[in-house]
């Protein structure tokens, strides 16, 4: 009977102990960032995506739509569509009116779609 073959990279490396001496000599380490956030997470870089414009369901004016990925969502907000909390780590969308960028609103994606189709209540 033959031994099953291991896939490349699936086993332990010899000499990979724990502690300070476990790194290979000359191994690259990530650069240290002097302005790293206190929570230990990396800063999110600005996106270079094309802008999406929609009608703001509350004001009826043109607004820019931004998608917030779960790893980017670091604060809690209240969705104007359902008046429920958007928790940290929850993907959602942000509507930024072009004529009043300080009036941006964070929405659950299904709530925004419902408001756009049926009107905001």
Topology:
Layout lengths: L51 E4 L6 E7 L8 E2 L6 E2 L5 E6 L7 E3 L1 H10 L3
Antiparallel strand pairs: 1-2, 2-5, 3-4, 5-6
Provide the spatial order of strands within the biggest beta sheet.
Answer: 1-2-5-6
The total strand number stands at 6
Question: How many distinct helices?
Answer: 1
Question: What sequence of helices (H) and strands (E) makes up the elements?
Answer: EEEEEEH
Largest sheet entry: 4 strands, antiparallel
Low-confidence runs of at least 5 consecutive residues: 40-45
Mean pLDDT across residues: 76
Structural class: mainly beta
| Percent in strands | 15-25%
Helix content: under 10%
The 3D shape can be described as elongated
Estimated radius of gyration: 23 Å
Distance between the termini: 71 Å
Written description of the protein model:
It is a single chain. With 121 residues, the chain is mostly beta strands. It has a domain at 52-118. It has 1 helix and 6 strands; from the N terminus they run ββββββα. It has a 4-stranded antiparallel β-sheet with strand order 1-2-5-6. A two-stranded antiparallel ribbon has the order 3-4. It starts with 51 loop residues before the first strand and ends with a helix.
